[in-house]
Amino acid sequence: MKLGDLCEGLRIVGNAQTEIKSVAxxxxxxxxxxxxxxxxxxxxxxxxxxxxxxxxxxxxLMVTRLLDIDVxxxxxxxxxxxxxxxxxxxxxxxxxxxxxxxxxxxxxKTTTTYMIKSVxxxxxxxxxxxxxxxxxxxxxxxxxxxxxxxxxxxFKLLRQMADEGCDAVVMEVSSHSLYLGRVxxxxxxxxxxxxxSRDHLDFHETVENYMAAKKRLFYASKNAAVNADDAxxxxxxxxxxxxxxxxxxxxxxxxxxxxxxxxxxxxxxDLCGACGMIPIDLNIPGIFSVYNALSAASACMLLGVGLExxxxxxxxxxxxxxxxxxxxxxNRPFTIILDYAHTPDSLENTLITVxxxxxxxxxxxxxxxxxxxxxxxxxxxxISGRLSAFTIxxxxxxxxxxxxxxxxxxxxxxxxxxxAYTCIENRREAIRYAxxxxxxxxIIVLAGKGHETYQEINGVKHPFDEKVVVKELLDEVFHIG
Length: 481
Description:
Structural class: alpha/beta
């Protein structure tokens, strides 16, 4: 593709007829004939790697300032948005060949994508999925590094999905990706808003900024499915003149749940609306499962899917890794639940759900991530102290912070409660302590890590798959083998 065709309407200094054979934002991955995107990040400036990119074969550069390098340069103001739009053009606007469903919100994005995928596959569609745990083309799993891929990777993936016959794609759309313009150019057939609570304030600084970033999804959507029970619902819809369905339990909504029954094994409810009523039985307990199902159902309704298909798809969905996942304890008289809860709101929802069916103690093992929002640490300590019979404060991903300093900040919150607790910084040892001291009917909640298979300490990711760790510790503690 000619550089001028690829970057039509942009300022090009140099030969616009230069042939572009690939696009790249990592100078180490540049191939001969590539357009290299010079992106100014939070730690490094891509302009500093332009010379290396050209040495590796880059035929042109996208820059925000002209460089003294003798190759054509595309000069832009907003590098990240331009990178997304150029990448979309290079890969042939693959999103236009797909029904696009985007999901944003603090909680529930991952589970909702799986629910929508299951429903749409029940409707006979081949689905692509882009999200936190894994990317998928039909049943084929692909590696993922972040919730929403960087734009060249995203459009390359969408092109692959379209070429392999996908009819639609459901994707998690993070607040980061919306703010940074990673998804610029995509027009979503349905945008879904699950909820909004405190998260990512290390990046957005204020809840207002965080909320505004999420609203960007609906400026790029044809239809919206919005949680009417969330305080941010009216803000999300204000001034957005598109088709919409609201869903909820508490507030008046277009799609709503009645006769909700929660058990340790799952939840049942009647899904109601102008389209009729149908009973739903899910294998994931908790009121949050009802909300996730309502959001998925609303999105699918906006795509023309009927109630019977929605019911079948929802009830057929497998459990999602690290989302309220009950681990195998070998028929021992206690339960271990693995959950990704890493925000105050998600931890509170998880513990309230567990308390609703626990016959014994609720024992919570959790920490907070380093180099992230410090304000939530005492909040999560207070929540665990209030809702748990016993808390073991430990490390999550301390990253470059002192893990003991993080624990001290969590303690400030738990000490405002009467909740019993101990501190064991080593996460493996914390889990060992919980298992060794488990009593009959205890429910041990391992919160924060979920699907992650690593622990990041001092900037280094060490293998740490909590499911593997639990199995090893059960074998050790009970002398199996």
